[in-house]
Design goal:
Oligomer: heterotrimer
Shape of chain C: globular
Structural class of chain A: mainly alpha
Largest sheet of chain C: 5 strands, mixed
Number of strands of chain C: 15
Helix content of chain A: over 70%
Number of helices of chain C: 17
Strand order of the largest sheet of chain C: 2-1-3-13-6
Chains: A mainly alpha, B mainly alpha, C alpha/beta
Radius of gyration of chain A: 24 Å
Number of helices of chain A: 13
Number of strands of chain A: 0
Radius of gyration of chain C: 25 Å
Shape of chain A: flat
Strand content of chain A: under 5%
Distance between the termini of chain C: 49 Å
Structural class of chain C: alpha/beta
Amino acid sequence: MTPWQKTRSRAAPWFLLPALLLLGIFVVWPMGRALFWSATNADLLAPGRAAWVGAEHYRDLLTDARFRQAFANTALFAVLTIPLQTTLAFLLALWVNRPEPVWRWLRAVFFIPVIVSMPVLAVLWTMLYQPPQGSGMGLVNVAVSFLGGEPRAWLHDPATALPAIVVMSIWQGVGLQMMVFLASLQAVPRELLEAARLDGASAFQRVVHVVIPSVRNTIIFVITVTTIFAFRLFVQPYLMTRGGPENRTLSLVQSIYEMTFLSQELGRASAAAFLFMALIVLLIFLQRHFLKEVRE
Amino acid sequence: MKPATIIASWGISFAAAFLFLAPLLWMIFASFRGETSIFESGLLHWFDRGEWTASHYADAWRRAALGQAFLNSLLQVALICGAGLLVNAMAAYAFARLDFRGREALFALVIMLIILPMEVIAVPLFFTARDLGLTGAYLPAMGGLVIPFLAKAFNIYFLRQHFLSVPTELEEAAAIDGAGAWRQFWNVALPSVRPALATVVLLDLLVHWGDFLWPLLIGTREETRTVQISLANLFTQPPIQWGDILACSVLVTLPVLLLFRCFQRYIVITDARAGIK
Amino acid sequence: MAAFLAPLFFCILSRGALLFRPLAGVFIAAVIVFVLSGCSRPREPSPRQIIRVWAHQGQEAENRAMRSIADAFNHAHPDLRVELTFFPDFQYTEKLAIAAAAGDLPDAFDLDGPLVARYVDSGLLQPLDPFFSKGDLEDFLPTVIHQGTVDGVLYALGVFESGVVLYYDREMLASAGVSPPSASGEGWSWEAFMSACQQLSAAGIKPLSLHMNESADEWYTYAFSPVIWSAGGALISADGASVRDILSSPQNVESLRQWQEIFLRKYADTDPLDPDPFGNGKAAMDWTGHWMARSHLEKKGDRLGVMPLPRAGASFSAPCGSWCWAISARAPQPEHAAQWLKWVTNSEHGIVPMVRANGAIPARRSAFAHFPEYQRPPYSLFREQLETIARPRPLTPYYASLTRGFAAALRDISRGVDVQRRLEMAEEEIDRELQRRLPAGKEVSR
């Protein structure tokens, strides 16, 4: 250990204290309370009257058709979203990573859906997905029939409802990941790119051999974060389909939210929250196992 | 570059720009339309018929009581962004640079905390906030809006990644000049991750500007309303006044857009790090 | 605590924030406002007893009326003061629930009628019988009393009632050769209704608006349960404890198949965008509530006609129920909160100004005297329905799960899903929850 490192380990507690204290009070402690509730039949309207039920909620949830459907939907959403959104964000970042002001504007434009409030976007996309009725139909169907396809009720067909929400979600969130990639693309050493160019590497080769290796950590970061956010899916389907048709867009968070505030089974909702958390922790550990970070 | 490539490149850019700009344009245009013609199918109809009005803005401002709400939201977001930045950057720095026993395990724990969304943890968190007296009257409720969200596992994770990507040489040089851990952090490391800091501020800004459930639960007075609660107030009994909602959405979106424009130049500092190597 | 921390943050961060100029400005301004607002809010000591009151946020005029009712109350009661707070209608239920969870309910609050049973079941409401005389209560419409009564005890009282009718445009009907029922208060059988739609459709007129773009689940249960009821069906057993073989009974399947025909034949849109196609002249009939009466009258004048909803079976049926006022079981002085309830449900002090503002149906018979419009259609029909064919939604603590499951089924059915299979799916889901939550061995008798 160099002396430089030694002074630093002494300082560590002070650097960590405020954050850990706040996280402890406002995240860990509430979670502890939820853990306790998850083993009782606590009712939101009368949490004092709870009785101990042990692991019953967990057992029951694992066999509950609605909860399992929510799990399947969310997993499908994640499987579709993570690769598509990460790739698209990376491509957009490469595309707009140029110094002229025009590109700076374009970056801002890709970011706009992230900023606009979700209820407005939900209305807008519901309009875009309008099935043919009366004299008109939504723009998506106009485009589809222009290309020779059959117009359909995208949000009401059990087969297309979730993919339709995937498309909307990617469009809405891709700007964010693009920004993260952009920040790290700035750090790709210019000399390396120049050297590769002088060696006659094509643009594609430069991306694969120079850019991707140097933003590797960022890619892993973006995948991890996109995974978490994909599993937190809630607002888009809640506003656009309410989880329908036939529960096909019901997300895990919506089912937990409804357990909490609609049927108001606090104990069961807490158990569901812990199952949800265990699932994501497992996924992230798997990801970290397969995608090793480079640490200096 | 060949002219054909340039034209194609511009074409794609324009198409993409339109695809992403459309909602904002629609929102702004529609907010100036008369109530009955907002949902006129087909964009072309907008140009051949009259019925333009600015009255939705006046209505929205009055009906949603936006003045106080803007003040509250700005206050909330500024406090979270400002104070949270310091708290999280310090912890991130510790995880990235400082050696201590159990660092990896502790960091894994922090990552786990990213996972739970607000909708899931709202109830137990509300109980904690209530136990600490962070509900009710104006000041406690504003505290309740801010303090639970200062430390954020995600931001710690994000900033740690960026501290890791900064070479350690500058800090070691500062150490040789006699700088302690705090000055290495404050004077050397922090400025070198400025784009990441800006990103974190921007993310916090977006998340908390959009907060709805938490401010609803924590506030028991009308003075503590935030912008999203005000907006939600317009979604009342039928028939819904879409003009007012859209006008209110435009007003609520504008400050974020402005701040985004301000922060954008920090996020995209070209070659900031080229000088380090 | 927050007030202490703020200056501390200020000292530490004024420099840190300078890393970003835009942030610095906002941040410093924020801290100053924060600190100032801490200093400038001294609480005036008041000799009056405070009554904390929560209400859902309604239309603008409604809120203004509520405020003035509260002001008048404060003026008339020198020893009491109502502190009124509004919350967004959207997710007001969540707000109430978490306040209940924390033991933080205000002294008096309004809640949606179908929630009463749930709140009573959790022991959160104060019985109202001691505060109201029998004569007082007889003045209320029977549906209002029914909605607030659980196990024979009254817990909640409404200021206004609600209703749904079939509005129609006389001229549009006439132009398609359709004649509405001649006698007032008379409605169509389902066959007559469908053939009217058929004629309108053939004449190139959109027959009907069903407001399938409503985001709230409650609209579907509220507006379309009468289809089931009018054919003699039910949503849930009379004791509120089971839906098994009731929700998906053959007669319900049959009624909803008839209802589905409306959409299959494109008589009404499954995905409308326009919130009010009837008012805008794009549909000939409107299946909607009393809240549209004022606006429809303004737009249509003499062209506007109303009739009860078409019946899918032998008898006519109409929905009812609305917001109602209750007192928290933990109110330190329920008699003060009861003063407020008496005031707000009093014809002159509460009902008249409120109903003037929101156009709802007065909850008390004596209040109708103030509203001459109830002598004639469309308003007379609302009152008539409430006195005769109106049926409250099921009174069960598990109503929230019932309505979610049923509304989701209705949405899917409107889009062409097999009725029987979809109702069975909803029944399964609701039943599983009921069986889980019914206290073992406890007889639910309602």
